[in-house]
Each structure stands twice: as structure tokens, then as C-alpha cells.
Description:
By secondary structure, the chain is mainly alpha-helical. Helices cover 78% and strands 0% of the residues. The protein contains 3 helices and no strands. The chain has helices at residues 3-21, 29-32, 36-62. The longest helix is centred in the last third of the chain and has 27 residues, at 36-62. It is elongated and about 40 Å long. The chain crosses the membrane at residues 6-21, 42-62.
Amino acid sequence: MGFVTFLVVILVASIVDFLWLDTESKRWNWLKNGSKRQQLGFFLFFIGASSILYILFGVNFLNS
């Protein structure tokens, strides 16, 4: 899976879960009370952390 495809999948899955699937506010209720800036910061951090893990694990498996 390409890096861009990975980012798109993570982003779309997070947004769909946040806006559509979490209808009872059990997972994201703590984030919905924050400002839009805090929400954006969290999602950017999440995508950044996921990308770093993807790169680290990808390099590990590609080099073996």
C-alpha cells in the first residue's frame, strides 16, 4: 500500500468514525467538547503518529 493511500485510508476512517459512526458519543465525546482548533490538532497529531509508525514498520519489514 502506498504512503498516500495509507494516509487517505486513515483520514477517511477517522472522519467517518468521528462524524457518522459514533452516534452515541462513546468514543469521541471528549473531543467534541473541544474547539475546532483542538480537534484539528488532534487529527493532525494522529495522522502524524500513524505515519511515523507506518514508516518505521514499513522500513523494518522491507529491509528483512
